[in-house]
Amino acid sequence: MGLFESFDNLDKISAEAIASWLKPVPSLDFIDNYLVNRILYPQTIPQTERDMQLDLAILREAVKLNSPKSGESPFLNPALRKLLIPVKFLNFVPDLASLTWAFIDALFLGRHKKDWFDDLWTIVVTDDVDELVGSIILPQFEDGGSMKLKLMDKNYEIKKGNLSVIPCPKARCEISYKLQGGKVLNKDENAVEVHGGKLGLVIDGRGV
Fold this sequence. Notes:
Blueprint: H1 15-19, H2 28-40, H3 49-65, E1 76-77, E2 82-86, H4 96-107, E3 120-126, E4 131-137, E5 140-151, E6 154-159, E7 163-183, E8 189-204
Parallel strand pairs: 2-3, 4-8
Antiparallel strand pairs: 1-2, 3-4, 5-6, 5-7, 7-8
């Protein structure tokens, strides 16, 4: 089963929407032709880095189309705060970090947070047996904000606008953080245990 066989509305995606995720931007005619080929042959595996970036751009828009404004999505479990990525997608996008970023862009950018618990999500690769692969942290930054995070005796700094993946192979990870000009889980300083795994901690500092 191909990457795009899970979606039946790819023809509703505009070339302009796909182009918004790409740098440099190909011509809209090229994007239109590429999309048509993906609709006709959804099982095709990308052969080049450019093909992969185009596929990820299409995937972002396809996931958005399957996520109504009500916030419902087959790829989110809001009650348990889980991002659900079907394992079959990894057959076409083997880079788990890139695949996860595509889902975050599609599902979290511009998403209205119901409460401060929405700052922390678990990433799950779904199969017959689900696998926890890491966590997403969504800091709420003000202009010029930054976050200092400590994990396994290593220190990291995440500034507003940054996207980061921090390794944490353990099933559970104890982190401590301190923010200047921002909060996570309604606190500017805290220690908390989060899920780790083969991906680790994904931190989106864009303030979504």
